[in-house]
Amino acid sequence: MARITAGVATSHVPALGATIDHGKTHEPYWEKIFSGYEWTREWEKGEKPDVVILVYNDHASAFDMNIIPTFAIGCAERYKSADEGWGPRPVPDVIGHADLAWHIAQSCILDEFDMTIINQMDVDHGLTVPLSMMFGQPEAWPVKVVPLAVNVVTYPPPTGNRCYALGEAIARAVTSYPEDLNVQIWGTGGMSHQLQGPRAGLINKAWDTRFLDDLTADPQRLRHIPHIEYLRETGSEGIEMVMWLIMRGALGDKVKELHRHYHVPASNTAIGHIVLEPTP
Amino acid sequence: MTAENPKQDIHEYLAELEDIPGTRVFTAQRARKGYHLNQFCQSLMKEENRQEFRKDERAYMDKWDMTEAQKQALLDRDYNRAIDEGGNVYFLSKLFFTDGKSFLQAVGTMTGMSPEDYQAMMVAGGRSPDGVRSIREGK
What we know:
Low-confidence stretches of chain B: none
CATH topology of the largest domain in chain B: Protocatechuate 4,5-dioxygenase, Chain A
Mean pLDDT of chain B: 95
Strand content of chain B: under 5%
Helix content of chain B: 40-55%
Mean pLDDT of chain A: 97
CATH topology of chain A: Protocatechuate 4,5-dioxygenase, Chain B
Largest sheet of chain A: 8 strands, mixed
CATH superfamily of chain A: LigB-like
Structural class of chain A: alpha/beta
Shape of chain A: globular
Oligomer: heterodimer
């Protein structure tokens, strides 16, 4: 039987990918960010997950203004790195787990989550940067990936509560998959940042810290944070944190925090990273 | 489990989104206004389109059903105006990258600060939310 063994969250700032691709991770500005991921890189070598369900948002790459799915699950065999305007990132193709992905899609639909099924798409920095942060620059990614793209660009995005509940449904889907698989779920994006207008550059460390604390201490509070609070307190792009709640919802009632890293800034953004383990 | 969520009134929800200083939330209204502008930006994901755009920006943009104000905002690289015209930053980022600019460089131009001052503000911990949470309540 497949099982979800851990949840990982991380920001997915595009500049982190560029820094890795250009070999600049040891520059002082970037080193302060990357050093906080060394623990996780070692831990992942021991954990050896078979599959990562990778919750992210597409940044106007695979989905333009013609089709805006709220929850889209990638059921393809493989995904190429998207050309976001400076050429595709030089990373390996992302290999899907089509069978598990279709199983999750079917299970979630019967569980009343109306998923959009994607059989062909390119994946942008939202998905490839987290893989690079956790696994560096391998010849091939050491895991298969089920991409789960969430609309957090065109309003309204899904509520935090809906995201959390989807996570719970994904957990039910995974545990009903017959093959013995070690599955992790990652929530990506955030933390506080605003990429537009005169208010750009907004960071709220106190709010972010409480969010990180409550992933363990009080996840039921987090699922009811309204969109307007993310916007006011964490900047217009801080709304990405609803995606962390899909990850959290999939881990069950109680979790143990194994690792945390928080740093300001990476480009315009507060970097947040946490590793959680479900506990009985 | 507390699966129940109080249903939000759509009118109150949308009104609140307009109450944040210096921020344009990408609502349906903006998405409709900016449809062609954003689709133009997304076309820059193809190298052949970037080349054609660089050769003659105006001529390439004339192929898109944008208003004059939208085209001018983009030609001026005035991203606040582009957002007022319905642009979304993730679509606009295809233009940043076509120009060889990072998010940090392009986003900073919207604040009225110099690139150096903006970068210094970020390194010092970013902009505080104090005073820029709500227009109505001035806090």
